[in-house]
Write a structure and sequence with these properties.
309 residues; alpha+beta; 31% strand; 5-stranded mixed beta sheet; 19 strands; 12-stranded mixed beta sheet; single chain; globular; 6 helices
Length: 309
């Protein structure tokens, strides 16, 4: 299932739901995808508020009911399409699949090829930092250059989302706590980051966490460590690697982080970036007003955002 948040362009009403596969789309014949709105009054609107992290909790009430509803629609039930709970993609604007994660955790220097590019040894343990969740934006939203920033950089990243509370989870049970996967652009103000001596401000300015376009559940991606990942700036590929280059994979990160920090449903863990970031290039490449950024990850999709001054 591909979980999504979206807004009706005409009414402004926002929903959480799922993107429907084209092959079984109740709006068959339409060139664009359709989306099932869990929070539509004809569906599961009474279960939980649209903004609640309960929609990402596999131990809660809302997500299991949403899965059953999704499966029912895939069996060609037309009732919800007729009632208006199935919406054509042309009428919608995609939002970040998680509006405000409880925690937004990032991992530094986690690609072997990036460590080689940087001339640094492989870390012995995950290098953990965070972004404020208030900087999350969605697909097609604008990334704003903050006042005083002259070195705005990009980082294409593969992220996973927690679906069950995790405290001191062993690696062999780690995937039981993973709901699914999404794309992140870890936008960074390098001049802020390096001048401060710590990374919080340089990583957490408003709009610095594009997220999406959807959250693909774990069952649709059998091996998260075999996915191509790219970053494109105005159509030019600047990063190209594969998640098989991750030093610490998903299970290791869940185990290591949950040793000291309890992970909760809806928490986002962004696993680091491959080589080719702007500040490491010779000469450096920094983002400018009008640049179109694209993070492309196999099996998930394309996360596209524009930079504005």
């Amino acid at each position: 299932m591909q979980i999504a948040r979206f807004e009706n362009k005409s009414t402004g009403r926002r929903y959480i739901g799922a993107k429907l596969p084209a092959a079984r789309d109740p709006a068959a014949g339409s060139p664009e995808p359709s989306f099932l709105a869990f929070t539509h009054e004809a569906a599961l609107g009474e279960i939980a508020p649209e903004s609640s992290l309960a929609w990402f909790d596999e131990d809660g009430e809302a997500l299991p009911q949403a899965r059953r509803l999704y499966d029912a629609v895939l069996r060609d039930e037309q009732r919800l399409a007729a009632a208006g709970a199935v919406l054509p993609g042309s009428e919608l604007r995609l939002l970040a699949p998680i509006a405000r994660p409880g925690k937004f955790i990032c991992i530094g220097l986690n690609y072997r090829d990036h460590a080689l590019e940087s001339g640094m040894g492989l870390p012995e343990r995950p290098l953990v930092f965070s972004k404020f969740s208030s900087c999350v934006i969605g697909p097609e939203d604008e990334v704003r250059i903050p006042e005083g920033c002259n070195e705005l950089d990009y980082e294409a990243e593969f992220a996973f989302v927690i679906g069950k509370r995790a405290t001191r989870v062993p690696e062999e049970r780690a995937f039981d706590h993973v709901l699914g996967y999404t794309c992140v652009n870890d936008v960074s103000a390098r001049d802020f980051q390096f001048a401060d001596g710590q990374w919080q401000r340089g990583k957490s300015c408003d709009t610095f966490a594009p997220l999406g376009p959807v959250l693909v559940t774990r069952d649709e991606i059998p091996d998260p460590h075999r996915l191509s990942i790219e970053f494109r700036r105005n159509g030019e590929t600047l990063q190209a690697s594969n998640t098989d280059q991750l030093i610490f994979g998903v299970a290791t990160l869940v185990a290591e982080i949950s040793r000291h920090v309890t992970l909760e449903a809806g928490d986002v863990i962004s696993t680091g970036t491959p080589p080719g970031v702007g500040f490491a290039r010779k000469p450096p490449i920094y983002l400018e007003n009008g640049d179109c950024m694209e993070v492309v990850i196999e099996g998930i999709g394309t996360l596209r955002n524009t930079v504005v001054g």
